[in-house]
Amino acid sequence: MSKRCFLLCFMVVLLAVQSNASWKLLIVSDTNRDGKVSFTDDLEGRNTWTNQSGAVFMFNDDSDQNNGKQDCTDKTVNGPNDLLDLAPLFIQQVPQLEDNSRLFILVSESARPYVNLFYKNGNDYVFVENKVKQEIPLPLLKGGDVELRIEANSYAFPGWDGKADITATLEAPDSTSTDSVQLKVAPFIMLSSVQKAKRIYVRDYPGHNEKLIQAMKELTVQIGVELKIIGPAAYPPLGNMAPGHYGGRVFSDTAPKPSCRAESQPRQTP
């Protein structure tokens, strides 16, 4: 082999080694809680959630489609308003990957029953069915940063501390790279009883609270607050209850479902 041919082969091997060593998988969330996700500012502390740092995500128990069903019960991002309720994560682009490489996402075992995870593909958000090892299409990682979104279907409770580790693994022919980030669900926080109201809701319970409703009408006019009266038609009789009995006097915007825990827990630090 000539000296020139040897040098050429050596350079090819060196470039191949450098190409394989030049990438490192990186996943980030809003670790510093500044409302943005950055591959530079959100690196420190992203693997361990503390009271001082670590991304927070929400128990998505509202109904942005106003259909009475909590958004966390389906496997869909229900439009732009619902998207605001899901915390973002990003996996940094790796453009020089070989085509037979594979990208996987994993949710920590303790959090799997209580979180929903999605990845963006085009204009759609795809539900991660396999939280043990879900493969994500490689062209997404080669073509740009991969966007993930996460929501909870529960607050933290004695059986789950609210933390979720999201791990990304990239398996290339000659090497494997893994990175993870830890988030925690936001706690249940009651509004202050002295906070100024904008709108007050009261249920019309025929034969039981006429005096209350009249007093509320007079009071809300005096203080300049809107009064919203919910009529009995919104609460039909339950089971074998007699007419005029409407299944209790408490109402809410969405009724808890078995898959969306809404248990009251002692107030705690998030």
Helices and strands, with pairings:
Elements: H1 3-21, E1 27-28, E2 55-57, H2 79-83, E3 87-91, E4 102-107, E5 115-121, E6 124-127, E7 134-136, H3 138-143, E8 146-152, E9 163-171, E10 176-185, E11 199-203, H4 210-223, E12 226-230
Summed up, what is this model?
The chain has 270 residues and is α+β, with helices and mostly antiparallel strands.
Key descriptive features of the protein:
Immunoglobulin-like, 2 domains, five-stranded mixed sheet, 12 strands, 16% helix, disordered C terminus
Description:
With 270 residues, the chain is an alpha+beta fold. The protein folds into two domains: 25-185, Protein-arginine deiminase, central domain (Immunoglobulin-like); 190-253, no CATH class. Helix content is 16%, strand content 24%. The protein contains four helices and twelve strands. It has a five-stranded antiparallel β-sheet with strand order 1-3-8-5-6, with no helix packed on it. β11 (199-203), α4 and β12 (226-230) form a beta-alpha-beta unit. The radius of gyration is 26 Å and the shape is elongated. The N and C termini lie far apart (67 Å). The model is unreliable at 6-21 and 254-270 (pLDDT under 50).
